[in-house]
């Protein structure tokens, strides 16, 4: 029952943003909502191709681009790849320089919303902190 309700809910969310709820789009959005791991296109593809053998990386890329444009998900630009986040409440990220994991931080920079800095209007703020995560710190891992 829960899965059916979730799928219907996702369909309604997509429709409300003017997005046709295809099986691929529903599954991609569901994946991002259920996996708070900040995956990249490659990770999403590798996980979803098991369920949807006909899905392509191009479909995933184009769908993610549309979701970002419609503010359904966040894009996290890293040095070597783009990662995606289905958690859209205002927050920041911590990136471990040792293992590469990305963590959500509930730190909101509300001062930056719709403010003008040197004549620039801030619409979005992406706070990224870098360092060593607690797991790597416990292990004593150093790069």
Task: Describe this structure in a few short sentences.
By secondary structure, this protein is an alpha+beta fold. It has helices at residues 2-16, 23-34, 41-48, 57-69, 134-139, and strands at residues 74-77, 82-85, 92-96, 102-105, 116-117, 120-121, 128-131. It folds into two domains: 2-74, Arc Repressor Mutant, subunit A; 92-139, Dna Ligase, domain 1.
Walk me through the topology.
Elements: H1 2-16, H2 23-34, H3 41-48, H4 57-69, E1 74-77, E2 82-85, E3 92-96, E4 102-105, E5 116-117, E6 120-121, E7 128-131, H5 134-139
Parallel strand pairs: 3-7
Antiparallel strand pairs: 1-2, 3-4, 5-6
Tags for this model:
Arc Repressor Mutant, subunit A, alpha+beta, Dna Ligase, domain 1, two-stranded antiparallel sheet, 143 residues, three-stranded mixed sheet
